[in-house]
From TrEMBL:
Family statement: Belongs to the AHA1 family.
Ranges where the Activator of Hsp90 ATPase homologue 1/2-like C-terminal domain occurs: 17-139
UniProt-listed Gene3D superfamilies: 3.30.530.20
A Pfam family this chain is assigned to: AHSA1
Protein's UniProt name: SRPBCC domain-containing protein
The organism's place on the tree of life at top rank: Bacteria
Amino acid sequence: METQDTLPPIQRTQLFKAPIQKVWTAIATAEGLNAWFMPNDFEPVVGHAFKIDAGPFGMQPCLVKEIEVQRRIVFEWGTEWTITIELEDKGDNQTSCTLTHSGWRVDGMTEFNMPHSLVRDTMDKGWVGIVAKLGSYVEA
């Protein structure tokens, strides 16, 4: 939900030539997330606190907020961001995947003292490659 003090969420949707179960495993397991996103200790359990290794930005705290098996995962990233990944079975071994990165504030600053407006633009471009990497992983 956008208000005057928020920036629009980043949203990427891609159709993968892969069955939904394979895509689900790629987004709902630590091993799967490690293959296309970042090293982590994720578990698909609501309330599970986990960390992702964001390289130069260090270990980032996350918290699983929602799990809807083979449909949706929502987790908090840090103190302000929310990552939502939604899957839709399109039949014929095809799965639509929508990733949404929300929580961007107009006046927001990261813990590294970088304005959300700047980081959002960088992450917007970054998610293009990350979602493509997910596609390559599940279509292999």
